[in-house]
Amino acid sequence: MKIAIGSDHGGLNLKTAMKEVLVAAGVEVLDCGTHTIVSVDYPDIAQQVATAVTSGVAERGILICGTGIGMSIAANKIDGIRAALCTDVFSALMSREHNDANILVLGERVTGVGHAGLIVQTWLTGEFQQGRHSQRIEKIMALEAGCDKIG
Ligand code: RB5
Question: How far is ligand 1, taken at its centre, from the CA of residue 42, in Å?
Answer without folding.
Answer: 7
